[in-house]
């Protein structure tokens, strides 16, 4: 097993610039926020009655994060669709944001074409590809990501662009109130987490390294609520793609109504489960109380868990804290398994055969 | 281990009338559809611009099923909230459906009070409790479930009422087109599945018994798409509550973008995973192609799976097929583990301590 405190070991396994991309997540957010704030958005977007974001995998994560942050402050329903089709209600009064990092995601291209046909108010977020060609041809505004802060080239590691862009377009179109200064402060806090979880901080002081070692032989079962649910989804996907590790995600209070009962069988598999709770001081009061009680019930049934108590105070910085924690935990876990954190051979195999 | 073909064994373990409630799921749907179709709904509901359903656990499942059925034919966004709070956009133009089987669910009561305060168009679905008292006092119409077809008294086994009621109120309010005759035909088909999966049909001809035996030592990983995603959620919850079994749920095409990569570790846990795919002939063409290819990739990584190909032809009957299959599989799996399928001691413990 490699030593997570050995910078040489880390460099040997990280041939794809994953570490550099993780470190630059805050800069990605800042860059996207600025570009979209200064760029063109659809003139009619302020009149939209609802918002649909179409994106898959890494390209949907920015929207999930924005959506769970915004539940309590958006003026219209915002729905994320990870399918080929759009919901039937999409029409001239819907803002459709087509998000595809590569610009070549089949589902999103189909949905974008459908949105254009229905006369929806369309905006795009992409590094190029077919999506950029389609939108250019139709004179539809989009944010062309200049991905210099994501040298790995992997969509899931360019998620900062997607988060910054979607927050910015929603703010520009009047769906949320979010100030330049709030984003700038959150980006500065995010940079502190990049340092705190980074490879030069030794194991005993580094929660990301510690968590990676805890999860080494485990199936991570993530539990989050409210504004942290979307970013916990990103954490789970990174565990899959970067660490090649199976993982599940649940939300409280909902999981208290069924999952607590689901820890009996299979008995021999219980030793593999490890619950990871994301506890926040800004959750709704009743939800906060549920965290300790849920942990008690999980523990009483002989299932191990970690409670990660968020250290940032406000919602957006907490989201970045989980994002950066998840990115580093997945990275370290890949190294412990001695696999390349950049490559996704099965997803590539699948796409080639499709 | 008990013999699933022994009616005596089954009766010994099922002291809580679970089997009777499962058998009457079709009658629950029919009864709720009729009562809500003939009853009072809010006069203004046809003018609503969007719909929010508030419900937890078993009481949210009807809405999830309706929502995933309706994605492609609803005239407005329909969102399900399983939290204490309502989204900020809820106002006088929102239809809020408060669904709580017991009528005493803390989250739903809080959300219903908030909806009333904001002047939303409110409707309720409940067997009584605080929710019935609150709505009666405010002269707000609701469907008072007369739960004679659910002798177990468990909300998850009264899910037919919730499905029938939510479909009916959405149809009454003009959000979906659904005819009496379509519902009646689907209910008749559902009755056939009750027979086909029931205890008198022996193992070798009974897919529900066969699946329960397959899953006996496994963590079920359910995979579904489109109209079947909501009911797969119900299947997962029943595995937790009825069979006390841990389970996860994923949707295609989304899972192809990350989960395929997450089957490497922990290596020793892979033997516990068993994927259960719900393949439907009415999925979108590209989605159908993904099922066989996803199964190939899962199999190549040494993970076992079952492909359940839906036998009903249309969407609503397929939803009932999965609902009844899941109810019976969970029931048989509880018996194999020799646990009472009715009791949910940990959820009860949790609620008592909250």
Please provide a written account of the structure.
Chains A, B: GO terms for molecular function: carbohydrate derivative binding; glucose-6-phosphate isomerase activity; mannose-6-phosphate isomerase activity. Chains A, B: Keywords: Isomerase. The structure is a homodimer of 354-residue chains. Chain A has helices at 7-13, 18-23, 25-38, 58-70, 106-117, 129-137, 159-172, 180-196, 207-214, 229-241, 285-300, 315-336, 345-353, and strands at residues 50-54, 78-81, 94-100, 121-126, 142-144, 219-224, 248-251, 273-279, 304-309. Helix content of chain A is 45%, strand content 14%. Chain A has a 5-stranded parallel sheet with strand order 2-1-3-4-5, with helices on both faces. With 354 residues, the first copy, chain A, is an alpha/beta fold. Chain A has 2 domains: 14-184, Rossmann fold (3-Layer(aba) Sandwich); 196-336, Glucose-6-phosphate isomerase like protein, domain 1 (Rossmann fold), CATH 3.40.50. The first copy, chain A, has 13 helices and 9 strands. Chain A is globular, with a radius of gyration of 20 Å. At the A-B interface, helix 5, helix 10, helix 11 and helix 13 of A face helix 5, helix 10, helix 11 and helix 13 of B.
């Amino acid at each position: 097993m490699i030593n997570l405190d050995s910078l040489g070991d880390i460099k040997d396994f990280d041939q794809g610039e994953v570490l550099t991309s993780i470190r630059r997540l805050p800069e990605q957010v800042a860059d996207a926020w600025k570009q979209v704030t200064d760029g063109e958005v659809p003139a009619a977007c302020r009149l939209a009655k609802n918002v649909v974001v179409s994106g898959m995998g890494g390209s949907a994560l920015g929207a999930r994060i924005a959506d769970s942050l915004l539940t309590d402050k958006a003026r219209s329903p915002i729905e994320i669709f990870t399918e080929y089709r759009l919901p039937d209600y999409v029409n001239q009064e819907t803002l459709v944001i087509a998000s595809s990092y590569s610009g070549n995601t089949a589902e999103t291209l189909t949905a974008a074409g459908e949105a254009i046909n229905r006369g929806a108010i369309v905006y795009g977020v992409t590094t190029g590809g077919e999506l950029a060609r389609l939108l250019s041809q139709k004179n539809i505004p989009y944010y062309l990501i200049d991905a210099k802060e994501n040298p790995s080239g992997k969509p899931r590691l360019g998620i900062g662009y997607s988060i910054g862009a979607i927050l910015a377009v929603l703010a520009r179109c009047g769906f949320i109130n979010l100030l330049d200064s709030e984003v700038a402060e959150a980006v500065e806090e995010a940079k502190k987490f990049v340092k705190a979880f980074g490879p030069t901080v030794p194991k005993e002081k580094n929660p990301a390294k510690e968590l990676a070692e805890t999860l080494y032989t485990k199936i991570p079962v993530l539990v989050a609520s409210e504004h942290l649910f979307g970013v916990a989804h990103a954490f789970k996907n990174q565990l899959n793609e970067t660490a090649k590790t199976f993982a599940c995600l649940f939300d409280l209070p909902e999981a208290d109504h069924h999952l607590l009962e689901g820890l009996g069988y299979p008995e021999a598999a219980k030793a593999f489960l490890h619950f990871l709770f994301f506890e926040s001081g800004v959750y709704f009061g009743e939800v906060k109380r549920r965290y300790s009680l849920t942990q008690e019930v999980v523990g009483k049934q002989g299932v191990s868990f970690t409670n990660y108590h968020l250290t940032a105070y406000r919602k957006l910085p907490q989201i970045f804290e989980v994002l950066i924690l998840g990115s580093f935990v997945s990275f370290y876990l890949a190294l412990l398994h001695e696999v390349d954190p950049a490559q996704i051979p099965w997803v590539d195999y699948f796409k080639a055969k499709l």
